[in-house]
Design goal:
Helix content: 40-55%
Strand content: under 5%
Distance between the termini: 125 Å
Structural class: mainly alpha
CATH class of the domain at 111-206: Mainly Alpha
Length: 227
């Protein structure tokens, strides 16, 4: 028993000594796929053509650019209609067939869509979508021509969502592109917001007309009752 205790004590001492030794190899040795084990500290899109060539000479195929056709996570499908060449409107016309890929917005999404509209569109088209934004200001603003009234103008109320998306993405007439300010999902959200306001305006007008008719009818009945 005493021998066993001595043996265990010796083994424990050796283990402690070995574990505390500075001669222990602390490198992982040869790495099979270093590009996968260690990321290269390059900023996205910052690699120049000269740097790419230099890396390629060392057997590194690295460009920091997405593969063509790549869709980032949580992003919706891309808009496949390309921008028209100068003087051509064929793609703008074909955009009519593109449907809004987003389902109906819930209350919170509609609030966010309204916020995006006010930040990016309200300055021209107005908070009420009537074309009377700060840039026009009833004719007293710095912009001489009134921007499009998105609500109350049959031209824009009947405009398909795909065509609206084309205009927001590539720009149309005096309006520039908002592709750098709004991502694809946000652009569709803003369009959904505009369409919801257009629908509300139409239903409000119809409701007002209906209310007037009912009121008139009630008065007629009342008069008849008195007779």
């Amino acid at each position: 028993m005493k021998k066993i205790s001595i043996t265990l004590s010796i083994l424990l001492t050796v283990m402690i000594f070995v574990s505390c030794s500075d001669d222990i190899r602390r490198t992982p040795g040869r790495v099979y796929m270093p590009d996968m084990a260690y990321s290269r500290a390059y900023e996205t899109y910052s690699v120049t053509e000269e740097m790419k060539d230099s890396l390629f000479k060392h057997g590194i195929n690295f460009s920091n650019t997405p593969v063509p056709g790549t869709i980032k996570r949580d992003e919706i499908l891309p808009f496949l209609v390309t921008m028209d060449n100068a003087g051509d409107t064929s793609n703008y016309t074909s955009a009519k067939a593109v449907q809004n890929p987003l389902p109906a917005l819930d209350t919170l999404q509609l609030i966010e869509a309204g916020r995006l509209y006010l930040v990016n569109c309200g300055i021209c088209h107005g908070p009420k979508l009537d074309g009377n934004g700060p840039l026009y200001k009833g004719g007293d603003g710095p912009f001489p021509a009134k921007p499009a009234a998105l609500v109350g103008d049959a031209k824009y109320e009947s405009m398909p969502e795909g065509q609206m998306y084309y205009s927001v993405t590539y720009g149309k007439n005096k309006m520039g592109s908002y592709a750098s300010q709004l991502n694809t999902m946000q652009r569709w959200m803003v369009i959904s917001y505009i369409k919801s306001k257009q629908a509300a305006g139409k239903s409000g007008s119809a409701g007002g007309a209906g209310a007037g008719a009912n009121s008139t009818g009630a008065k007629a009945d009342s008069t008849a009752a008195k007779k």
